[in-house]
Amino acid sequence: MDEQVFRGGLNEVVRRGERLYRPARLWSSAVLGLLEHVRGAGFEGAPEPFGLDDEGNEVLGWIEGTVEDASGQDHDASAIEAAARLLRRYHDATAGFDASGLVWQFPPEQPAEVVLHGDAAPYNCVFRGSLPVAWIDFDTARPGPRLYDVAYSAYRFCLIREPLGTVTELDAARVRRFADAYGLNAEERLRLPSSMVDRLRWLAALIRERASAGDAAFAAHLADGHAELFAAHADVIERSAALRGALT
Fold first, then answer.
1. Which domain CATH number covers 122?
2. Which residues on neighbouring strands pair with residue 115, listed in sequence order?
């Protein structure tokens, strides 16, 4: 059987036919159980889980489509709204999942309103045409507040620029569109900019911490300037009156 090898930021995965094989991690059982739950709840925008094979791999169903790189691209209004709705459907499908006693890569966040994807960005999203249809790579999943996912996803789909420079009124309108399509309430909308800032500063600190501990993948991220970029973007978002005004 022909194989295709895909190399991402932290993982190498292999496609054989309609199955995808990913190296198992300590949190694989939790992730596979989560995928089984959301698929059972009718959410088809995530890979179908087939357990672990004898070689120590997660085995997942292949989802046809394309995945963007992490460089940051402009997404039109339809893509932004589709991504927000896809994230909301995923969050809703996690209701009732029993996460007690499970091992996750990162500790659960409070309040544990949903089970987070943890990295709901275009590079972890399958597109058909220009529209997002599924999330992949649930390695950073764990219980947490919905805004944790919404903040990073809105940042990646609506604001990411390298470098960001300023958040314009047009950019702010894109974030408002994401918040509307997801269905954030008034209080959540007010907290969204600060949630973006917190998430980006956490990522910058994580990159530096893991790089200092000798993690080669995070050392590469640090060398590429990702920590500095996230920190700079957090500062711009924190100062943006346009973004705060768009969400009131």
1. 3.90.1200
2. 143
> In the predicted model, what is the mean pLDDT of residues 217-221?
93
Q: Range of 10's domain?
A: 3-61
For residues 59 and 3, give the distance between their C-alpha atoms in angstroms, rounded to a whole number: 14
For the four alpha carbons of 101, 102, 103 and 107, in that order, the dihedral sign comes to negative
d(CA 147, CA 24): 28
Percent helix / strand / coil, the chain, rounded to 5: 45, 15, 35
CB 149 within 8 A of CB 195: no
CB neighbourhood size of 1 (10 A): 6
Which backbone phi and psi does 128 adopt, to 5 degrees? -120, 115
pTM for this predicted structure: 0.94
Same domain, 84 and 57: no
pLDDT for residue 60 is more than 80: yes
